[in-house]
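Hi P.,

Sorry for the delay on this. The queue was packed all week, but I finally got your sequence through. Input first:
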Amino acid sequence: MSTIDKTLLTVNLIDGFWDRWLAHGVDKDDLVKIRSSFLTKETWIKGWEKLANQKVLEAEKLKQQKNYTEAELKFRIAGLYYNLIQWLIPERTEEKINWLIHSLNAFQKADSLSEIRTRYAQITIDHYPIFGRIRIPSQPVGVIVIINPIDSTKEELFTYEKDFVEKNFATVSFDGPGQGASFTIGGCKATKEKWKTFIHEVINYTDSHFSNLPIYLFGTSSGAAWSIYGSCHPKVSKALAVSPAFPNETIKLPDYFVERLQAILNPDSDHILPSFDHLDFRNPIMLVHGKRDVMVSDQNIYQLYEQLPVEKCFKEYEEEGHCCNYKLPEIRELAVSWFQQT
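Then the structure:
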């Protein structure tokens, strides 16, 4: 079976696969309409394209009616649906690039309607362009760097941006090596060393553009692991990590996911996760864990918490799995409150 065939088998058989996408904005009614048709790559593309185009038409109509808030949301959901099309295709192909551009265009239309200013940015790693987006409320009280899981684009996490900017935090979000536009358009594959460089470069970029504001890190899964790594940077104030992935976990990942990772990793890289041993912890860290997480063991997360020598906080959800998807709005509220505590 191809990687795409294995992916489609998973999305049809395992309900939990959709937790992430529902948490990030996929409309449950939309999913119910088309999920049973996901038998081939062609039906996946046709289904999400039809829904995305419909959202664009609805957004344009709302825009004409000057209902800019609802139009903005419709454009973002359209962008998420186009993003799902490009997500299915693991390799960097013209087809994948085309669908990602559709997604980026929809998000840019949403940005143009938003009351929150959006700035598009680039940094460079090993001569590769790394693409970012910055959201800036009128009177920011701090800036939150969102570090995305390896299999996500920065646009996918638009609800994170929304929650944070509504609390007057600027947000900085870049596609890292192997992610989103940095991989699909820029061609930057992932290695652990590139990710170390990426974290430092993003923090330094943020400090140079928001030198008067405290910098906070927020990440989930592999992004949470790198948030912990980034917490050691002297310019970071605090970091929050939801379900941080560990390089020494012995859990067997699904074949489709392993194969997808192989498409974005340099051939000489077996993983891109940082080790938490021997880090120079200097800033407060909050860990969030779901007791039903099958990818992060209780033992590892508890042991990590015990080894943190600086100010720390721990939140555990009995009924949540990896990334605590159904508690993310609450976790983002918790993050804002914790970041503001002195």
